[in-house]
Amino acid sequence: VSVESSSDRDVRGDAFSAFYEGAHRSAVQLAWLLTHDRATCEDVVHDAFVSLYPRFGSVQNPTGYVRASIVNGVRQRNRQAGRERARVELVAVTDAESTSGPTGGLLDAVGILPLRSRTAIVLRYWEGLSDVEIAEVMHLRPGSVRSILSRAISKLRKEFS
Amino acid sequence: LSPDLEDELRAVLRLDADAAPHLDSTWTVPDPAEPNAARTRNGWMLAAASVAVVAAGLVGVVSVSRNDGNGVAPTDSAVGPAPSVSASISPTAPPTTMPAVATSSAPATSVEPQATGLAASIADAIGVDGLELPPWFSSRSTAPSCGTWVGDTATSQSDDLAPLDCFSTAIANDERAQIVTVHTGDDLKVARWIVALGTGPYGAEQFEVASLVVDDRAGTTRWAETRCVEGVFVDGRLAGDFVVDRNMLDQLHPSGTTVTEDGAILELPGPDDRTQLQPCNGPVVVDRPFVTPLEATGMRVGDEGSDTGRFPGYNEIGEPDLTIVSSWTPVGANDPVRIIGFVYNDLLDPRPPPQTGGGPTDAEVIYADDGTTRIGQFGPDGRPALDT
Fold this sequence. Notes:
Chain A is mainly α. In chain A, 71% of the residues lie in helices and 0% in strands. Chain A contains eight helices and no strands.
């Protein structure tokens, strides 16, 4: 285990702080779109940055790393007990910071999609990622992404119509 | 969706993102004395990957050792939060303190994730099909500080470590692999291994973790519960950050079946198929994509307690350890301390212990250690009442 000098640590800390400042808001937004739960959102985002910190500087794409960490974190939570699962389901959220508001029925339709489909939709239509980029974040093949998006869009069309 | 609706989708997601809560935490440099922790100005302190294993700590678990008649005597003290006296299911909070488990017996690092050349060769030897023994295993008879592995003989006691849940050192410095738990039974041996695989797509170190199952009765050897973990080694222990879960997603079909690389749908026999087969190198298809509680935990119904065991989900010094989060969670009783059943983790939901004299709790999928997954209930006495 290499020992990092205090000056190196300071440099890394400054760089990371700058990255954090720039990336934090969008990270929160991504987690929010996937969970609609403030507490989960906080935890997932902080876990992502905490995970990144010790390897910041060696990770080639920190933004992608944080994005993947958030998607992983949300998915892991979703896989936990049913109570956890219910908590991150958009459709189940009833507090003030939920799907209510100006977004209307289409967002509700997104909210009832399975987490994997919802993740793909958010990464495509909010993050603007390509199939390949989504595949990398979700650890899928691009073909699988296309398939997921196709099914999700079909379902949205049906729900929204 | 028509282009108009796609635009509308973008718009509503943008509005929704704008409505995300404003979290005003500000990053500060973590204290070097807390290498796995970070602190924000509003007082948060988060251990890496802490959340991922919280659920694993929601059920009181008894770590046990097994007397296989080979001179290793069981002990009778529970580990961590004691299970309920009157019931066997003991939901508890994650342990705040962990029992000391002879940490001094584990030599410092023997796994060097930076040295990936040999690690890669080991990974190749294991094979992405997950079925082949690594060549170094067949000639291996010892696991340093964990005891001896010879035939059906359980690992002998060493430095007061139990044969079960024995945290060992790496099997050899140049193998870049680490044995973390061992179970030896009459006809089945289980060892969990960590192998460094090198750098993942984002530059983080990846490790593959698996149970090696040697089934003497069936004459087979195979890998089970393969997981891909990104993490770092701290003092020789893998502090996992998150499970990559690559082909859990890739293979999981909405119907609950598994889709192979070529698109074929594989019907799965067990309830825990979804958490299998997550190697770092992509999807695999195996003969039996199904893992039993014994294979996942190294524990059996009837195993009795040991004061040298530990909680699944935590390493011996109380740090979260993703490498031992498995598909099954053992459920214990404490009179005597023993394993009475297993609950499939995706069904795990914290609940109060059944009331003495009351009716049975909700049905759970539990397992009776005879190769059959059964639907059953935990009765008022805390014992599993299995349907046949």
